[in-house]
Specification:
Number of helices of chain A: 20
Helix content of chain B: 25-40%
Strand content of chain B: 25-35%
Radius of gyration of chain B: 16 Å
Oligomer: heterodimer
Largest interface: A-B, 28 and 31 residues
Largest sheet of chain B: 4 strands, antiparallel
Distance between the termini of chain B: 12 Å
Number of strands of chain B: 6
Distance between the termini of chain A: 73 Å
Order of helices and strands of chain B: EHEEEEHE
Structural class of chain B: alpha+beta
Largest sheet of chain A: none
Radius of gyration of chain A: 24 Å
Strand content of chain A: under 5%
Number of helices of chain B: 2
Number of strands of chain A: 0
Helix content of chain A: 55-70%
């Protein structure tokens, strides 16, 4: 009888089921065709159920992923056989599928990577709406469940299920192929993929839901998907490296943004010794790789800003002038009110609170955004206008539904009363 | 030391879990239980069982079953060592991972050949 070493369970990587599920769905979908995406999901679910039963009885195989791949492959072959007997596919097509599926190479690393790369372009197809692109990517490529995605995005399972359904519907209607786009289409399609990954990361990073763990997982998933692009020569574009650098810098502060009580710690008050040095180091490396040629994207600028914060020994010693100029450059490329808001905040440290106030008052479209009023409150407070500051903090408290943000803003409000 | 057979009814959890993550964590609970019993020297053997089966009631009578569906289905068994029934019951009470899914355990004592 095989005796398992007692610590074998700890050898099972965290998220093994989740990540292998993402890989298997991609490979199986490439093999079975996109119209069978749901079948691929079912096969993976069955495979994991089997692993759960067998491994749980103390029989964890030496190579868990290989075990999963073999089971999934056999289930896929069974599915194709049953299709064949029902004559739903023509015989030669089926034989071809079977031939491929029997091949030992089906779950080679290179094949997994190729399938996932194709899948990411399919999930981020321009005909699919952005929120559906994110949900489908997380479900299909990352192995997150509808329930987990809804928890991360503070929305109902129903909403997420609908988004995924709409995405799948589009893929069938538009006959979207599992392929890596080439030629002149590639840069455009790559841009969309990057935007989806950017939004996915930000959703996890910025939303202030109570379920910190799952939001952190979403960030980690966005960071896990990026290397699919950097590892392939066709898609290893400087902008991908810049985006990955941005994610590394942001993620380095993940643990430092909230205290044990769950309260937000602002950048100024964070213990910088707790920032993740290895992520900052990786961020710098990716940013170096991303600046090998001339092209500068919004990701380069955002990464450079995040990199300046990461490199600074303290809040006061931050190179605020450079931060401000980078926000100016960013605003020129991406003139959104949120960028303008950040630019104004940077100017309060780089130039003066008076200049920040003027910039803030020029911004249109954030009248109902809590961060806008929080910034106005902050600037008024610094200028000694406590009454004005109080009004804006109160407004900000009313505009956010996050208890964490409300508590932070209430602290600020107290300063206006003193 | 007596031997007891723990017969697990209701399979291992539901057919659908909320996530792959939940499945891995459920598997971890089972694995940890087996490890614990092995460590204390109480684990003898155990196997998960596939659903479905045959019921043979005579040379010419073979049907599907019994208990191919629902709560009655046997998902697997352990054979463990315990001092007495009380200890065997205590072992399951604390660590059986499927209670939350409505799983139940039948405990039967193995009859020893030497008395």
């Amino acid at each position: 009888m095989q005796i398992d070493p007692p610590d074998k369970l700890s050898h099972l990587v965290d998220h093994l089921f989740r990540h292998e599920s993402g890989k298997m769905v991609s490979v199986l979908t490439k093999m079975l065709g996109f119209k069978n995406l749901d079948i691929a999901h079912d096969i993976v679910q069955d495979t994991l159920l089997k692993a759960m039963s067998v491994w749980g009885y103390g029989k964890i195989p030496d190579n868990p992923p290989a075990w999963l791949y073999t089971v999934a492959k056999n289930k896929a072959i069974d599915f194709l056989r049953s299709q064949k007997s029902r004559r739903e596919v023509n015989e030669s097509e089926c034989e071809e599928h079977l031939r491929v599926s029997f091949s030992e190479d089906l779950f080679l690393d290179s094949e997994i990577q190729d399938s996932q790369l194709r899948m990411i372009f399919a999930c981020c197809h321009p005909s699919i709406p952005a929120d559906s692109q994110i949900a489908l990517s997380l479900k299909t490529l990352c192995g997150l469940s509808v329930q987990e995605i809804s928890r991360a995005f503070l929305t109902s399972e129903d909403t997420i299920a609908k988004r995924i359904y709409r995405a799948k519907e589009k893929i069938i209607q538009e006959k979207i192929d599992l392929e890596v786009p080439s030629g002149s289409i590639l840069p455009v399609r790559l841009e969309i993929v990057l935007h989806v990954l950017y939004l996915m990361f930000n959703e996890g990073y910025n939303s202030s839901g109570p379920d910190e763990l799952i939001r952190k997982d979403v960030c980690a998933e966005a960071m896990r998907l990026c290397p699919l692009l950097t590892l392939h020569p066709l898609t290893n574009h400087p902008s991908v490296n810049a985006l990955l650098a941005l994610m590394c810098f942001q993620a380095s502060r993940f643990e430092s943004r909230v205290n044990e009580k769950g309260n937000i710690i602002t950048l100024r008050h964070q213990d910088r010794s707790t920032w993740n040095k290895s992520l900052i180091h990786q961020g710098n490396e990716y940013l170096d790789r991303g600046t090998e040629n001339e092209s500068i994207t919004v990701y380069h600028i955002e990464a450079a800003i995040a990199g300046l914060h990461a490199a600074s020994p303290s809040f006061d010693l931050t190179d605020w002038k450079s931060v401000y100029h980078l926000y100016e450059a960013l605003y020129a490329m991406k003139p959104t009110p949120i960028v303008a808001l950040n630019k104004a905040i940077a100017s309060s440290y780089a130039i003066s609170c008076q200049s920040a106030l003027e910039l803030l008052l020029q911004i249109k479209g954030l009248e109902n955004h809590h961060l806008y009023h929080a910034a106005l409150g902050e600037v008024h407070l610094s200028l000694g206008k406590k009454d004005d500051a109080k009004g804006h903090f109160e407004r900000a408290i009313n505009l956010t539904s996050s208890p964490m943000e409300q508590s932070l803003l209430t602290d600020k409000l107290m300063k206006c009363l003193g | 030391m007596e031997q007891f057979m723990l017969i697990f009814h209701g399979g291992s959890g539901p057919d659908t879990f909320p996530s792959a993550e939940a499945m891995q964590s459920h598997m971890g609970k089972w694995f940890a239980w087996v490890e614990k019993l092995k460590k204390s020297g109480q684990y003898v053997s155990g196997e998960p069982l596939l659903p479905g089966g045959k019921l043979v009631t005579g040379p010419n009578s073979v049907t599907d079953g019994p208990y191919t569906e629902g709560k009655e289905v046997v998902g697997g068994y352990f054979v463990i060592k315990a001092k007495d029934f009380d200890e065997a019951v205590a072992i399951t009470k604390k660590d059986f991972p499927d209670f939350s899914f409505g799983g139940t355990i039948q405990i039967r004592q193995v009859m020893q050949t030497e008395m």
